Amino acid sequence: MVIVVATRYLFFNSSAYETYLNHTLALMVTSNLLRERVIETTLTDHHLLSITAAQQLSLAVMIFAAAEFLGFVTLWSDRSPEQTRRRHRYHRGAAAALALGFLAAATPARRAGQTLEEFGGWSSVLAWALLTSIFIALAYRLLRMAINELLRPDAKPRERLLSAGGFVIGIAIGSTSIDAVILATLEQLGWMHTIAFRLNLHGSNIFWETVGVSFIAAVPAAKALTARIGLDATSRHWRQLQPLRAAMVHAVPAIAFELGRPNTRRQKTPLDLHQTTVQIRDAILQLRGYFHDVDPAQANRYYHRHSVPAGQREPALATLQLANAVHTKAAGATPAPLNTTVILKSRSTNLEQETAELLQLARWWPQAQQDAQPRSTTEMSK
């Protein structure tokens, strides 16, 4: 977790989103470190803090971590950076007041050298209420944000995955915060005895919540690493289109061009992908005079031979039509007058949609090449 924090501050600290998340994670890791046995022993041996005081300070630090996470969630909820900064002043002010109130209410337990669970009393109930109030507010905001993102129709899979992670973290924070106050109150009233359960739960929940936030925080670094080695979507799509592009360049050499120096790295840019899509689409336009309707018998053989699913028959047939055009041109046929009814049409309006369309052609290109049949000039003129 310390490595994740250091990496984020060094390489992912350029936006308000990243700053709030980095502060959150740094404070959560600090809270966990204060609970490490080695650090607790060191603080005690040097007469700086007792073990109980270190544990309570760890909880107070989590209040400030929750405030920073609220800043992240506020910004994510379509607030402007200026609005978020103004609201975040209140978050931090409230965190400072709650932390001071918590430490004051927890003083009797601290003096007795006991945890809040062991010491009990209404002062401990008050301490839990002050501690968890900001966590409950955070859980509510986090769950609302996660649900909105999960229900957003245009959300990408990675965004849905992060939102699902945020939803799980929100449930964990909310449930452990609410039950801390309820169980402490019921214990004080003598209606339930849950000290052992609460000691076990509260001893690990901060760690696992930190692990969850670390997972979310590590996503940008993991994404940058996968992009570096060419495993990002842009690079993968570029590679998947290369066999089709090479075939188009061979069929229509005039479409070959390079925008500046060729990119030899594994990581490809949107410009590299755009160049590939432009070349393929240009070749299809150049082959317009060689397009013709696919013979139904040929299409049926093609479907049967390659087990083309019903849902894939339209792009598979379009690919076979393109392969037939390439073979017809290679056979030396004279291009026929343009017939727009048999030309491959595109409904794409951006690079993402264009890439998706061409990837469908690339998916069936090897099979279409095997079954392609040229037409003579006489047949094409009919």
**Shape annotation:** elongated
Helix content: over 70%
Annotation field: number of helices = 17
> What is the rounded Rg?
31 Å
Number of beta strands: 0
Percentage beta strand: under 5%
CATH-derived architecture of the largest domain: Up-down Bundle
Organism: Mycobacterium avium subsp. hominissuis
Domain DUF6545: 233-366
Transmembrane segments: 57-77, 89-107, 119-140, 161-186
Keywords: Membrane, Plasmid, Transmembrane, Transmembrane helix
Provide keyphrases for this structure.
elongated; 382 residues; 2 domains; mainly alpha; 17 helices; DUF6545; Rhopdopsin 7-helix transmembrane proteins
What can you see in these coordinates?
The protein has 382 residues and is mostly helical. The chain has two domains: 2-228, Rhopdopsin 7-helix transmembrane proteins, CATH 1.20.1070; 233-381, no CATH class. It has 17 helices and no strands. The chain has helices at residues 2-11, 16-33, 37-45, 51-76, 81-105, 107-112, 116-119, 121-151, 157-189, 195-202, 205-228, 233-251, 270-286, 296-305, 313-330, 351-371, 377-381. Helix 1 (2-11) runs antiparallel to helix 2 and helix 15 (313-330) crosses helix 16. The longest helix is centred in the middle third of the chain and has 33 residues, at 157-189.
